[in-house]
Write a structure and sequence with these properties.
Length: 747
């Protein structure tokens, strides 16, 4: 295999792969491999298209990053991508899909190692492993182990990467231990038998990693006499990822089983000077006179980024030629999604000034301004998807993209459901150019100096001193506070941000609950739900009991063999609620005029049923009716409805947002000859079937028109044969479409 050499770097590879993989799913070949490269503290302006290309053209100090430049040319640069304010919350939000108002790890807490990601939290590793992907994680994890050196301990098994779907691991568990690049020991999996949590602590010696190389003919790092005895951690992480990609690319070609790898590098987080202990550490800049004119710390920072750029280049080369024989006919590049992203904005240091690393954005890491939370991000699409996408190679996108979006996006790409009620929204339909792109109304972030909500071009910052409002399109540097000019907008955004729980003390999070009630039991009774407790090593961090509330992620499931019913006799609210059955139906029936709220989501899954009775079903996002799910009744649905099952309007049903029906969906409407059975304030997107029921009082007359659906705009059509629908008494109707309504004409 041919590699180009990262500047001053020679090669080892790390063999960390063993044991059996999950069986291959028949559809695996249609799903992309995913390689996610996640760097630490790299400011938004550190990418070529965000400022470095311009600086190079002007002869100013600039980063030397040929691989990232290549990704910019072959992929899409997302100029409005957001991470989090600092390391731990960024990783918690990335893995769980919850923003800092809902995720448990919402601070760089000194106790994070003992808590953070809980066993009930479903991570991207969990989702993709369960979907049949081979999974790997290398680098800074941040949770589960103590900070001591050289012999840390595992403090919380439930928060380890190996407890959340990652099979192949070389990692640092405590984020403070990651504040050196010459860690004497690292954690790895697969591990020796009996290792706690499936992780083994091993010496980080060059001799050990080279001895365990899967490719012993590759030149090894220790061949250079000046390479340190203890390996530079990011070298180890990158070579572990390289080994994984080589092996799993060949496995993908042989079996169709896809892989997911997350390379969570420490670069370019401090300490900076440690890179200078490596041979030829600054050679990438030998021909640039500016290098010796900038501060030492800026030199080190730039060298760190150029070094990892070389590592990324080798990993991409291994996708092109997995077995290293020079023949690229076995390339998996066209089947692999590549993501490059930073966890947060760049900190305050000389490189920020020498290279304009934050690209003119206000403030730095740890702050709520965009300099602290807007991050560089690029995505290279697999070739088999790129042709369908509206996102073209070599372009910039202004699409709003948050780190919480990757979990649901990966779930979509893997063909499985995202975890219930998370804050992120899948961008897979936009990336792939097919499917219905769901929308989010806003983004939420927290920092030491306040919280923010971003909706469209507007960003509201909430501080102890008051509220500020900025238009990020007109004022990306957040220099002109326009709150005084838009008091109603400020009030509206403030109400939304407080509803996202940003004002809660640290350690607040959503809680998980299951329905335990008997048939016909009341939803509002505390005894009909499981209590929640999060504890570890004898310490209880949080408990939650009582009746449902807006912090609950709740599942109402019928696991028995007969249909079951739950009744809501008073208003009830959740962060998210799923209703489902296994072999029999689980129904939730709302008494007259009752309101059910699922702030993030109401999901009616297989054999789940929800009946509205002149009341309201409300969500800030959507009501999702899956295949074999049923939503029926009359009243109001104050949300967007996605219907892949059955929606039955038995009387007047009002939908205040959009209504989107898939090919598997069916819409059933009671026809009484008076008003529209379904009134949609937003747009109606049609596919699937239409059926009608006739009111007993309706006397059908040939040629008579009957109002069926009104909407802001109608697109698509039902799949009914010959464009007709037949009522229960045999009456036949022709379906007639116009721009904003659907009527039936009796035949």
């Amino acid at each position: 295999m041919r590699f180009f050499t990262p500047f001053g770097l020679f090669f080892i590879t790390v063999s960390l792969f063993g044991g059996s993989h999950k069986s291959t799913r028949s559809e695996a070949g249609a799903r992309p491999n995913i390689l996610y490269i996640y760097v630490d503290d790299m400011g938004w302006g550190s990418l070529g298209p965000n400022g470095q290309f311009e600086r190079k053209a002007e002869g100013l100090p600039h980063l030397v990053t040929p691989t990232l430049d290549r990704l910019a040319a072959e992929g899409v640069n997302f100029r409005r991508s957001y991470g989090c304010t600092v390391c731990s919350p960024a990783r918690s939000s990335q893995q769980t899909g919850f923003h800092q108002g809902h995720t448990f790890g919402d601070r760089n807490d000194t106790d994070n190692a003992k808590k953070a990601i809980r066993s009930e939290d479903i991570t991207m590793g969990d989702v993709l492993s369960e979907a049949g992907y081979v999974t790997g994680y290398w680098g800074k994890w941040g949770y589960g182990g103590s900070r001591s050196q050289p012999d840390p301990e595992i403090l919380n098994v439930q928060t380890l990467p190996t407890s959340h779907g990652y099979e192949h691991v070389v990692a640092e568990l405590h984020h403070v231990r990651a504040h050196t690049f010459y860690q004497p020991t690292l954690w790895k999996a697969p591990s020796a038998p009996g290792a706690l949590g499936g992780l083994e602590l091993v010496p980080n010696s060059m001799e050990r990693w080279a001895r365990n190389s899967a490719y012993p003919d590759t030149p090894a790092l220790q061949n250079h006499p000046d390479y340190p005895d203890t390996a530079y951690c990011d070298d180890v992480y990158a070579f572990a990822a390289l080994d994984f990609v080589r092996i799993q690319s060949q496995n993908y070609n042989a079996t169709g089983q896809p892989f997911f790898g997350l390379l969570a590098l420490q670069v370019p987080h401090a300490p900076f000077a440690e890179v200078s202990d490596l041979p030829e550490w600054g050679s990438a800049y030998d021909k640039f006179s500016f290098f010796n004119e900038i501060p030492d710390q800026a030199q080190h920072w730039a060298a760190m980024i150029s070094r990892i750029d070389g590592h990324i280049g080798n990993i991409l080369a291994s996708l092109d030629d997995p077995n290293g024989d020079g023949d690229t006919s076995d390339s998996v590049t066209e089947s692999t999604l590549i993501i490059f992203q930073s966890d947060n904005g760049g900190p305050q240091h000389p490189a920020r000034e020498a290279f304009d690393a934050n690209g003119g954005l206000r403030e730095v890491k740890g702050r709520i301004e965009d300099g602290g939370i807007r991050v560089p991000m690029m995505i290279r699409l697999p070739a088999k998807f790129a042709g369908q996408s509206s996102l073209k190679a070599g372009t910039n996108s202004e699409i709003l993209f948050d780190v919480t979006d990757f979990l649901p996006t990966f779930a979509d790409l893997a063909g499985v459901k995202a975890p219930l009620g998370i804050d992120g929204v899948s961008l897979a339909p936009t990336l792939l150019g097919k499917g219905e792109q769901r929308t989010r109304e806003f983004l939420i972030h927290e920092a030491g100096n306040g919280q923010s909500i971003i909706r469209g071009d507007h960003k509201l910052i909430r501080r102890k001193q008051g509220l500020e409002l900025y238009n990020l399109d007109a004022d990306p540097s957040e220099s002109n506070d326009i709150a005084g000019k838009h008091p109603e907008l400020v009030k509206e955004l403030e109400m939304l941000i407080l509803g996202e729980r940003v004002a809660e003390p640290k350690g607040f999070a959503n809680t998980y609950h299951r329905w335990t009630g008997d048939n016909a039991a009341l939803v509002s009774e505390p005894d009909n739900w499981s209590d929640y407790e999060y504890s570890n090593a004898g310490i209880t961090y949080m408990t939650e009991s009582g009746k449902p509330q807006l912090s609950w992620t709740a599942v109402m499931e019928n696991v028995g063999g007969t249909d079951a019913l739950a009744v809501a006799n008073e208003d009830v609210e959740f962060l998210a609620l799923e209703i489902r059955g296994e072999s029999a139906i689980q129904s939730l029936v709302l008494d007259p005029y009752i309101q059910l709220t699922g702030r993030n989501e109401i999901r009616i899954s297989n054999k789940g049923s929800l009946t509205v009775n002149q009341g309201t079903v409300s969500s800030l996002r959507w009501v999702d009716v899956a295949r074999s799910g049923i939503l029926k009744g009359n009243g109001t649905v104050d949300a967007t409805v996605y219907n892949s099952g059955l929606v039955s309007a038995l009387g007047s049903l009002i939908v205040t947002e959009d209504f989107i029906q898939s090919e598997s969906g069916r819409l059933n409407i009671m026809l009484d000859g008076n008003a529209y059975g379904l009134n949609i304030s937003g747009d109606l997107t049609l596919a699937g079937e239409l059926s009608v029921e006739l009111s007993p009082k309706l006397k059908v007359k040939q040629g008579q028109s009957y109002q069926l659906i009104a909407a802001k705009e109608v697109s698509g059509q039902f799949s009914n044969k010959s464009g007709k629908v037949v009522g229960g008494d045999g009456a036949s109707f022709k379906i007639s479409y116009s721009k904003n309504k659907i009527i039936l004409i009796a035949e």
